[in-house]
Amino acid sequence: MSLKIGIVGLPNVGKSTLFNALCKEQQAQVANYPFCTIQPNRAVVPIPDSRLDRLFELLKVPRKVPATIEFVDIAGLVKGASRGEGLGNQFLANIRNTHAILHVVRCFEDVNVAHVAAEINPRADIEVVQLELTLADLQLVERKIERLVGAIKGDKKLQPMMELAQALREHLARGMPAATFPRRESELFQALNHELRLLTAKPMILVANLDEASLTHGSSYLEQVQQVGKEQRIEVIPICAKLEQELAGLSETERREYLALAGVEEGGLEQVIHKSYQLLGLISFFTFNEEEIRQWTIPRGWTAPKAAGVIHTDFERGFIRAEVISYETLIAYGSTAAVRAAGLMRIEGKDYVVQDGDILYIRFNV
Predict the structure, then answer these.
(1) Residue 86: its pLDDT value, please?
(2) Confidence band for 2, pLDDT divided at 50, 70 and 90
(3) d(Cα 212, Cα 180) in Å, to the nearest integer?
(4) What does the DSSP assignment read for 224-286?
(5) How would residue 224 be classed by pLDDT, with cut points 50, 70 and 90?
(6) Each residue of 274-328: pLDDT tens digit?
(7) From CA 62, how far away is CA 75, in angstroms rounded?
(8) What share of the chain in percent tops pLDDT 70?
(9) I want to staple 41 with a disulfide (CB 3.0 to 4.6 A). Which of 28, 255, 349, 350 is the partner?
(10) pLDDT digits (tens, 9 = 90+) for 113-168
(11) Residue 153 in 3-state DSSP?
(12) Is the pLDDT assigned to residue 30 strictly greater than 50?
């Protein structure tokens, strides 16, 4: 599966700068005025995983193919966006297909970068964006209810869906996100969310965009974001998007050295990927042949046949068995031949649950 993440926030909080940093190149226009981003910026970038690099060096195949992640950067949202203010609301449809949302919050002062509010107030900024996302979902639910009013006359079986939609409408109307809806785990809600792709039901990460000094020493702005994250049980990632963008052109070794000097172990992309994987319950497995080593992304808990289907639908349909080596075992023994000789290559059937870091060779027959 291809991981997709939407980037939202108020104007001039650093969304496009973060987008460029994550993509490691200048793709999104950056300027000191609201609504610089008109058309949504999209980029597909490789997922960093040191295990893929180690396997590539060990197996000495011609190429490595990482799994990818797509970022979608939309126009800045403003208060009243759901009623037509600003430009951001018309682009929210572009992130309804994403798996998670990065909400970028301004936590830096810069007289040269205008802010839509009179003062920098991370908590207030978060509330504005979250409310607009909630109101956008409310509009979708209200339209669903309008359709159900007509449809239910000919099909009384739709009554439970109508009751759930009405309850969800009341929940959203109180300014509460779909993620806190009491019946969100029910099959009926899951069906409704699958249809509407509610923004506030998606996992969210708060990205506190700091200046370089605050990245090391912290700030009151960061504390505000962390407090909101604690209250709402949302992951918070402190990032200096400007620094990340400046480092984008350096080699990987130079970049890591610079981040270490700044007191940061992981760059912005790595932090976003790891947190997103945790939130979405994703893992990676690997396959290889004489031409390449390839990384794949699947939800945790998938069986070997379902994982094989990500490679090719025929692999799932005709699945016989999987030959499995754990990443740690292959690194320790140095070659597949040595692993086989030690009797550590496992033969697993249709019930096997793939583990993070597994190296699979699928046997199938169609």
Answers:
(1) 46
(2) confident
(3) 34
(4) HHHHHHHHHT-EEEEE-HHHHHHHTTS-HHHHHHHHHHTT-SS-HHHHHHHHHHHHHTEEEEE
(5) very high
(6) 888 888 899 999 999 999 999 999 999 999 999 999 999 999 999 999 999 999 9
(7) 41
(8) 89
(9) 28
(10) 666 667 889 999 999 999 989 999 999 999 999 999 989 888 889 999 999 999 99
(11) coil
(12) no
CA 325 to chain centre: 28
Strands 68-73 and 3-8: parallel
Q: Are 165 and 148 in contact (CB under 8 A)?
A: yes
Inter-residue contact 193 to 172 (CB < 8 Å): no
Locus of tokens 């208060």: 79
In this structure, what token pair is assigned to residue 14?
A: 């650093």
User: What does pLDDT average to over the chain?
Assistant: 86
Angle formed by the axes of helices 122-151 and 159-173, to 10°? 160
- Average pLDDT score over residue span 34-43: 55
User: What's the CA gap between 198 and 179, in Å, rounded?
Assistant: 9
What single-letter DSSP state applies at residue 90?
G
Q: How many residues does the chain have?
A: 366
Task: Tell how many helices (H) and how many strands (E) occur in the chain.
Answer: 14, 12
Contact 339, 288 (CB under 8 A): no
Instruction: Please identify which residue in the block is written with the tokens 């107030």.
Output: 121
Radius of gyration of the chain (CA): 23
- Rounded to an integer, what distance in angstroms lies between the CA atom of residue 188 and that of residue 192? 6
- For the residues of 24-68, what is the DSSP string, one character each? TS--S---SSTT---SPEEEEEEPP-HHHHHHHHHH--SEEE--E
SS3 (DSSP) at 4: strand
- Structure tokens of 199? 């923004």
> How remote is the C-alpha of 96 from its chain's centroid?
12
